[in-house]
Amino acid sequence: MFLKPVTDFKEGFFVRSTAIGLVLVNDERPHVYEANSQENMATVEAWAKVIRERLTAEGHCPSIVVASQTITGVRVAQQVGEELARANVKQLIMCYNVWDFPYLVWPLVNSLGREIPILSLSNNNGKYPGNVGLLATDGALRQAGRRTHRVVGEIEDSGTVEQVLNWVRASQAITTIRNEVYGLYGGHSMGMETGYFHLIPAQRALGCTAYQIDQLMVLKVMEGIPEDEVKKGRRWFENLLGERLCYDEHMLTEKTLERQIRLYLAVKKLNEEYGLDFCGIKGQRELTEYVCLGDVAEMLLNDPYDWKGPKEPTVCATEADSNAAVTMQLLKYISGGLPTLFMDVRLYHPELELWDLCNSGNHSSYYAALSVDPQENFKHITFHPALEYYFKAGGASVEFDAAPGKLTLARLGFYNDKPYMVILAAESLELPAKQRQELGKETDPTWPHVYARLEGGFREFLQYFPANHIQGVAGDKIESLLYACEIAGIRPIVLGKDYLPPVWELV
Q1: What is the domain extent for residue 27?
Q2: Residues 285-303: tens digit of each pLDDT
Q3: Which pLDDT score is estimated for 1?
Q4: Which of 46, 48, 39 is nearest to 70 (CA)?
Q5: Are residues 94 and 81 both part of a single domain?
């Protein structure tokens, strides 16, 4: 299988992964490689151990394949390449510990395919000039048009290790999403063309495709959802929320909440039946006017739990914003499986230098307290009746303010069918209760909010941001996201920071 089965679980998150290969190109002179092969193999094994231990601690259970020998000639290169190919290696770390003969790289990498991400990793040692071998060999790869990345440093250096891990997270994200299918329930909402799935450029950059399913199919599956399962979900919410589940016997009733739970279970079932890895629900206007508001269903899909216990967060974009969904899926993978955020770029408060990022949509409840325990998160959550003005079919709107902390925000866009991604660091702020209430009234106090300070100025943001929806994930994941964009051939635009574009963007 291309993907490992989703069985790995760490700290509340399930993580998919693909196999990583590690190999070292050596000197072809027998008296040289016979003297250094043991030490070189030990270096490769040491890097494999560090990567395996760190990724496992994050929740990955990666398959790390170390080549059986260093490459000392053409036949060995071919043999090792075939060995890694049989192990289904999808990304390659080329270790450089000594001078090597650069031409030997070709029978190796050509066995693995032209699209495999490559990291060239070297020591910085005068006696054993690995960085000389790196620049000679990696230079040959780039000369022929291969997009590669380079890290030079010692395994004992934490900064060097973190660079390597950031690249691994990125290459894992790209090689995983390449084999995935996005489920588009209902088409793009309200004519938002920035959310349309741009098939060909998306396939060229990322390999993933989209499968569209009419919302009528969702309704038919909803009809067959077992009644007892729906009631379990409703009782779970009632126990978690208590009086903060604000039934009004009009828009938010037991019946309309159960309809939202049915929507969740129906989409979950269809995702499983069709093998869809992530999805988007159109919602407006058909579902929101005649069935129910999608907020609860979308929240549950993005959450790392439901009433049955821990589960993999399934990226689901509200209003079937496909470029948002792709962005969220990349953020999920580079973060080790974290739930992701979906927000409107709603309101800027210049006097506070503060953005209010909110919409009636799919904030994962994880962000209420950044906990994998639903009890902790739902202490901060209220279910309000849906606004009849917008959502005539009723149901619950989910209200909370995101917990404070660092965020990485991003959005995939296209210019003349060429993909780019705007990336920026942000911080979610915990505001005083009175201030939050006053600010909430300026938009909608019944929706989820992220009150955030963003890197880069207001004008810079407006100059480059591609759409009305913005996506995010907890923590600083910018370096990994940059690597992912560069591997995929997506032009990154980093706000508020200096960025050195790769050579293939400059020539």
Answers
A1: 9-177
A2: 899 899 899 999 999 999 9
A3: 28
A4: 39
A5: yes
**135 and 123, same structural domain?**
yes
Whether 54 and 15 map to the same domain: the answer is yes
Of 177, 205, 237, at which residue does a domain stop?
A: 177
Per-residue model confidence (pLDDT) at position 188 = 81
Cα distance between residue 92 and residue 172, in whole Å: 11
Q: Decide if pLDDT at 13 tops 70.
A: no
Q: List the CATH number of the domain containing 437.
A: 3.20.14.10
Give the pLDDT confidence score for residue 203 in this predicted structure: 87
Annotate 442-501 with three-state secondary structure. CCCCCCCEEEEEECCCHHHHHHHCCCCEEEEEECCCHHHHHHHHHHHCCEEEECCCCCCC
| Structural contact between residues 483 and 423, judged by C-beta atoms closer than 8 angstroms | no
User: How far apart, in Å, are the Cα atoms of 68 and each of 24, 37, 42, 403, 470?
Assistant: 10, 11, 12, 48, 45
Q: Are residues 151 and 189 located together in one domain of the fold?
A: no
Q: Residue 119: left (phi > 0), alpha (psi -120 to 50), or beta?
A: beta
**Burial class of residue 207 (count of CB atoms within 10 Å of its CB; 0-12, 13-18, 19+):** middle
Same domain, 336 and 402: yes
pLDDT(151) > 80: yes
φ, ψ of residue 92 to 5 degrees: the values are -130, 130
Cis bond leading into 346, ω under 30°?
Answer: no
**Together in a domain, 90 and 232:** no
Q: Which of 177, 192, 227 is the last residue of a domain?
A: 177
* Whether 93 contacts 138, CB under 8 Å: no
In a domain, 22, yes or no: yes
In a domain, 1, yes or no: no
The tally of domains found in the chain comes to 2
171: buried, middle or exposed (CB in 10 Å: 19+, 13-18, 0-12)?
buried
Residue 77 CB contacts under 8 Å (≥ 6 apart), including other chains: 25, 71, 104, 105, 106, 107, 108
Two tokens at 190? 């309200």
Give the per-residue SS3 of 136-204: HHHHHHHHCCCCEEEEECCCCCHHHHHHHHHHHHHHHHHHHHCCCEEEEECCCHHHCHHHCCCHHHHHH
Q: Which of 291, 289, 340, 296 is nearest to 315 (CA)?
A: 340
Among 5, 158, 175, 207, which Cα is nearest to 89's?
A: 175
pLDDT tens track for 110-148: 999 888 999 999 998 877 788 999 999 999 999 999 999
- For residue 414, how far is the Cα from the chain centroid? 19
Q: Is residue 120 assigned to a domain?
A: yes
Prediction pTM value:
0.94
Q: Is residue 306 part of a domain?
A: yes
Burial class (CB in 10 A: 0-12, 13-18, 19+), 500: exposed
251 neighbors 188 (Cβ within 8 angstroms): no
